[in-house]
Backbone:
């Protein structure tokens, strides 16, 4: 199963509402997670099971979707949110990641 | 809280075998609640799942790497390991280990800090 994220890159300003989309090549129910990665750091889990916020993650992050179409929304961008975001899915014990969305400061 | 730490050589010669170990602290690798995985990231590129293992020894590999990958677990040392044979420059990457929740919707958390492995003569 392939995951396609859009856009690949995005410029936005502090305070903006941002949405990143992840589309699966076939249905994956709610088996989707979102990660944030900053330069030189390991990815950090934000959302699992498509819409469940990981403990400690700010509530401005939210996830939605099921089947083939998923979204990650940041309701009001903060300076620390500028990073690369990846979606990830599981199917038949195999995991794949989206290609990433780089969120940059406008 | 549970933490993971990768260790191993940072430089491997072409055609040789890359060997890394992930040490788990703050929790037991023998827990039935988790799988354990390896993920890599070539410089400037995205994430690629390499493979996963359960404490019982059951393994799952990325088909694109399966012929060259072996993942094993040592419950006595609370470690799991990665071996990737016949490496080329294309295997140069940051290698991460991570815990995977053994629920129906699986995810990677936490991750180790990662270790850069360069394949070069």
Residues:
């Amino acid at each position: 199963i392939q995951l396609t994220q859009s856009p690949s890159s995005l410029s936005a300003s502090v305070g903006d509402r941002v949405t990143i989309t992840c589309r699966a090549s076939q249905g994956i129910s709610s088996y989707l997670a979102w990660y944030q990665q900053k330069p030189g750091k390991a990815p950090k889990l934000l959302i699992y099971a498509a819409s469940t916020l990981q403990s400690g993650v700010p509530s401005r992050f939210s996830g939605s979707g099921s089947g083939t179409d998923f979204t990650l929304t940041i309701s009001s961008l903060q300076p620390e949110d500028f990073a690369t975001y990846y979606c990830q899915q599981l199917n038949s014990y195999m995991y794949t990641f989206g290609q990433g969305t780089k969120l940059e400061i406008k | 809280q549970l933490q993971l730490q990768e260790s191993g050589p940072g430089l491997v010669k072409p055609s040789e075998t890359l060997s890394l170990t992930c040490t788990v602290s703050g929790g037991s690798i023998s827990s039935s609640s988790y799988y354990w995985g390896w993920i890599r990231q070539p410089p400037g590129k995205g994430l690629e799942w390499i493979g996963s293992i359960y404490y019982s020894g059951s393994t799952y590999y990325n088909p694109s790497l399966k012929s060259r990958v072996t993942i094993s677990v040592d419950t006595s040392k609370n470690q799991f390991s990665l071996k990737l044979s016949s490496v080329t420059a294309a295997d140069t990457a940051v290698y991460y280990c991570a815990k995977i929740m053994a629920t129906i919707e699986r995810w990677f958390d936490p991750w180790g800090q990662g270790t850069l492995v360069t394949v070069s003569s």
User: Anything to note?
Assistant: Chain B has a mean pLDDT of 96. Chain B touches chain A through 23 residues (CB under 8 Å). The radius of gyration of chain B is 14 Å.
